[in-house]
């Protein structure tokens, strides 16, 4: 397998990658992950993140200092402090993406919309290169990895995982897997369990759309960019990165 897309409700194969909260960010935001994005000026917003060190599938570990937080492929960057926190100012009302990178850890590539629904995000659990290699080996996927997309399909009312959701890569052939109740990914399942996690494998770097099916209805984008049809989220993918998308759907 080449590029790997993870689809999840709270996080993905890594159960503690991003914390789940109880709020609803609305389209283009990230639900329940801290406060709303502060206004940095008439045409800007401030986005803050928090980073931690992943401890496998155990609870999120300690704050991680020294993570470079950047608007993608720009010098608009900040470095996380001893509390694992950093902020940057972004143009308002635009589709943007940002990266989180630290030597020795698998980086993140995240897309969002900087409108009034933009929420602060985190904590992002940074996975050491060795931990990522171990997790991929457990799935029978060779290292180095292509790219991974983590997708959430959650209930808008309680921010909980939805069982029975399918994830289909639009216009591409891909074999989905879904996560068991104990977070273990399996190619034998045909839809999400109640934790709502799964993934897709693909090989080419670029921007991709994933369609939520099965029990997923009336979905709106939270992390990522809007797709070109209902129940679709679009995400950028880069080799060696974890990428993200989230959709809030009606509870079945």
Describe the 3D structure.
With 252 residues, the protein is mainly beta. The chain has one domain: Carboxypeptidase-like, regulatory domain (Immunoglobulin-like), CATH 2.60.40. The strands form 4 sheets. Strands 4, 5, 7, 8, 10, 16 and 19 form a 7-stranded mixed sheet that branches. A 4-stranded antiparallel sheet has the order 1-14-12-13, with no helix packed on it. A hairpin with a 5-residue loop joins strand 17 and strand 18. The longest helix has 10 residues. The chain is globular and about 40 Å long. About 15% of the residues have low confidence.
What is shown here, in short?
With 252 residues, the protein is mainly beta. 4% of the residues lie in helices and 41% in strands.
Structure annotation, total helices: 1
Q: Portion of residues in helices?
A: under 10%
H-E string: EEEEEEEEEHEEEEEEEEEE
How far is the first residue's CA from the last residue's CA? 32 Å
Q: Under the CATH scheme, which architecture would be assigned?
A: Sandwich
Provide the descriptors you would attach to this structure in a database record.
single chain, 252 residues, mainly beta, Immunoglobulin-like, seven-stranded mixed beta sheet
Fold topology:
Layout: E1 3-7, E2 38-41, E3 44-53, E4 68-71, E5 77-79, E6 85-91, E7 95-101, E8 108-113, E9 121-126, H1 129-138, E10 148-155, E11 165-169, E12 177-179, E13 185-186, E14 198-202, E15 206-214, E16 220-223, E17 225-226, E18 232-237, E19 242-249
Parallel strand pairs: 3-9, 8-19, 10-19
Antiparallel strand pairs: 1-14, 2-3, 3-6, 4-5, 4-7, 7-8, 11-15, 12-13, 12-14, 15-18, 16-19, 17-18
């Amino acid at each position: 397998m080449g590029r790997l897309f993870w689809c999840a409700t709270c996080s993905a194969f890594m159960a503690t990658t991003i914390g789940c909260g109880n709020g609803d960010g609305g389209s283009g935001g990230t639900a329940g992950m801290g406060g709303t994005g502060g206004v940095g000026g008439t045409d800007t917003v401030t986005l803050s993140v928090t980073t931690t060190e992943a401890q496998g599938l155990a609870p999120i570990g300690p704050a991680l200092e020294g993570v470079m937080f950047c608007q993608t492929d720009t010098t608009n960057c900040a470095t996380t402090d001893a509390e694992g926190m950093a902020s940057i100012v972004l143009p308002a009302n635009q589709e943007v993406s940002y990266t989180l990178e630290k030597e020795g850890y698998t980086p993140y590539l995240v897309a969002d919309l900087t409108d009034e629904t933009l929420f602060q995000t985190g904590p992002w659990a940074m996975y050491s290169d060795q931990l990522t290699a171990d997790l991929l080996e457990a799935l029978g996927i060779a290292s180095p990895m292509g790219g991974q997309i983590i997708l959430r399909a959650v209930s808008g009312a309680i921010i909980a995982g939805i069982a029975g959701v399918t994830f289909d890569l639009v216009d591409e052939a891909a074999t989905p897997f879904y996560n068991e109740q104990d977070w273990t990914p399996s190619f034998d399942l045909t839809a999400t369990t109640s934790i709502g996690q799964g993934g897709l494998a693909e090989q080419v770097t670029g921007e991709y759309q994933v369609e939520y099916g099965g029990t997923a209805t009336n979905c709106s984008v939270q992390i990522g960019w809007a797709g070109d049809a209902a129940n679709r989220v679009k995400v950028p993918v880069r080799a060696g990165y974890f990428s993200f998308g989230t959709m809030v759907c009606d509870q079945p």
